[in-house]
Amino acid sequence: MSNYVITSNKFEGAFYLAYSNGWLVKLDLTEAKLSKEQHAYVLGNLPLKESELKAFAATAKLQCKEQITQVTFEVFYNAYGYKEGRKKAENAWNKLSKAEQIKAYQYISVLKAKKAFSSENLPYPATYLNQQRWSD
Fold first, then answer.
1. Alpha carbon distance 36, 14 (integer Å)
2. Contacting residues for 80 by C-beta, under 8 A, at least 6 apart
3. Residue 105, SS3?
4. pTM of the complete model
5. What confidence tens digit (pLDDT) does each residue in 52-100 have?
6. Packing angle, helices 98-106 and 108-118, rounded to 10
7. Residue 52 per-residue DSSP state
8. What SS3 state is found at 124?
9. Do 22 and 43 share a domain, yes or no?
10. Which residues are CB-contacts of 43 (< 8 A; sequence separation ≥ 6)?
């Protein structure tokens, strides 16, 4: 299941979509403050196929961001890229809540950008996780 949050500077709030096997299965407009015209436009043009969502968002000038609801250790470890101390990193990963796992995963790109700018090396994955570096 893929979950998306849709925002725009043309309305307040956000609306949410969920796709399963590439097809729209959920639409939640309760947090979006849409005019009648905007509401009708979304309902009339929202793609049923996930593969068409990005084009719809671009045409309608919407910001579309996938919401991550779960990240596996494999996904984290591959994204982190520094292959050192896998077992310790996995143990540290398993001690984190699902919310902390998502935060740790999402912060990887920020950490890499900071380290590239300062020419410092990435910490070992276990160190990153144990010290919760995404909270710095």
1. 15
2. 108, 122, 125, 128
3. helix
4. 0.61
5. 999 999 999 999 988 887 889 999 999 999 899 999 999 999 999 988 9
6. 40
7. G
8. coil
9. yes
10. none
Instruction: Say whether both 77 and 113 belong to one domain.
Output: yes
Angle, helix 98-106 to helix 73-80, in steps of 10 degrees? 20
Structure tokens at 92: 């540290």
Q: 88 and 43, same structural domain?
A: no
Which one of 10, 39, 67 terminates a domain? 67
* DSSP-assigned beta bridge partners for residue 18: 3, 26
What is the β-pairing status of strands 23-28 and 12-13? unpaired
Mean pLDDT over residues 111-117, rounded?
A: 86
Sign of CA dihedral 26, 106, 32, 30: positive
Residue 110: domain span: 73-135
| Amino acid letter for position 114 | K
